[in-house]
Amino acid sequence: MKKREDISIVLCGPAGQGIKTAENLMVSIFRKSGYAVFATKEYMSRIRGGSNSTTIRISSRPVRALVDRTDLLIPLDREAFKHVQYRISPATKIIGEKETLFQQDAQWSDQILDVPLAELAKETGGKIYSNIIVVGIIAGLLKIKKTIVHSCVKEIFNAKEKEILDKNIQAVDRGMAFSSHLPSDFKIEMQTQKDNDIILNGGEAIGLGAVAGGCRFIASYPMTPSTPVLTFLSQHGETFDLIAEQAEDEIAAVNMALGAWYAGARSMVTTSGGGFALMTEGLSLAGMLETPIVIHLAQRPGPATGLPTRTEQGDLLFALHGGHGEFPRIIFTPGTLEDGFVLTQKAFDLADRFQIPVFILTDQYYIDSYYHIPKFDLLKIKNKDYIVKTDAKYKRYALTENGISPRGIPGYGNGLVVVDSDEHTEEGHITEDLDLRVSMVNKRLKKMDALIKEAVLPDWIGPKSCETLVICWGSTAHIVAEAIEKLKDKKIALLYFKQVYPLPSKTMNLIKKSKKLIIVENNATAQFAQILKSQLGIDIPTRILKYSGQAFSVEELEQRLKKAAL
Length: 566
Known about the structure:
Layout: E1 6-15, H1 19-32, E2 36-42, E3 49-59, E4 72-75, H2 79-84, E5 93-96, H3 98-101, E6 112-114, H4 117-124, H5 130-141, H6 146-157, H7 162-179, E7 197-201, H8 202-212, E8 217-220, H9 227-235, H10 237-240, E9 243-246, H11 250-263, E10 267-271, H12 273-289, E11 293-299, H13 316-321, E12 330-332, H14 337-354, E13 357-363, H15 364-368, E14 370-374, H16 434-454, E15 459-461, E16 468-473, H17 477-487, E17 492-497, E18 499-501, H18 507-511, E19 516-521, H19 527-536, E20 542-545, H20 554-564
Parallel strand pairs: 1-4, 4-5, 5-6, 8-9, 8-10, 10-11, 11-13, 12-13, 16-17, 16-19, 19-20
Antiparallel strand pairs: 1-3, 2-3, 2-14, 7-14, 12-18, 15-17
């Protein structure tokens, strides 16, 4: 039997059919079996019904990107075929009940591994156990040890009643037993994962980065796809000595976060496009008060409600130009889980140091994807305290050479900490002195000089000298990297931006090395290309864009890059 490089498994069915539970169980089983795992999902905006899908890749080497290729498909109803039909090839094997899923002579019916799911589920206790039976079948096809499968089932269902736990073990056992009747060529090289590896998703990476950055307060209103960050931090608030507040709306949330910073607590908000729209007045308030704030903006397709559960890189220019007036900001765009952690920690440090808003831009694909990474090196994290002890002569907005005024907080020292949303004097009192107004604007904007020097350089991946340079930012990073790797063209390199504003001073030198530039973005108007043109005068006419609400796949991008690079 020929061993595969990796196997791609797709579960698809209506919401409420246990796809999430099956996904969690399979990922746990594969991980404990020594496989590298990547998983992501896409789902409709409904509690019940529709068609949602989860993709799980398992491999002997790290896999960190979405592929269209489907080796094993588990459709939980007939509608699933319409939803994922573009991913089904002649090589795809379909696990399910032939009589239920197919009409006579239906397309793909000869590719099914026929399983009497209804009968097996009835023997176990009802239809609700169908998803767990399927997990057992897949575990059986991959020859995974029953002890591993049982331990994972116990981990997931241990909090349930003993009867429910026992029935789920029976369900997975029935699936494993039935798998012996099915033909299988699903075998891949196994390579035990390193002991220091962890598996987590984008929401957890951002949440852990916030904790590492000293976050003590998060206020947000739930909004897909940003909610996992709020959920993660609220679940672990007691452990991390952190308060999580579900505000009544986004306006309240951003003002709560500003109040927390004013009192001396590092804080953040997490939201999506529509929520951030409500926060823009608070953003401008932060700019005038020179109060730090960290904003996690998980993008989704707009305008308005758009596609609320889908993915898109559509809010970059909104984050850049949001708020009225002129004031400095930083925009981070992590594309790897490691960068999500590191940049979020850095966001808190820079927000505090420069007294500015710092954005972390993600999207649904990034937040809901997870894979193996090495454990974070916590010894490298150093959080500096930038708060000063005030005296009687304290001036909150003292004019300084670098634009950064000493930031005090109420009750720490003898000084009076006055902040004002109107233009103000050095002491913080309202003023209409127009000459002072100019000085204050210049003071705030002066910070940009230091921000540019502090900017995080993009990652150059590939040959140092290349004819074609592919530029991407944020969540497309791993997908583009794998697509370029599959092209096996030594004349193509990748420049992945993890900070898009302000641009690092060396950006021009990096980009001008190549004869041809290609930019990849998950939006309709090439928003980062617009920033490169407006900031540096670099025009990139060759653009690979996608704005259907779906992420790029490796195969799709490989073909589009191949065509664009000709």
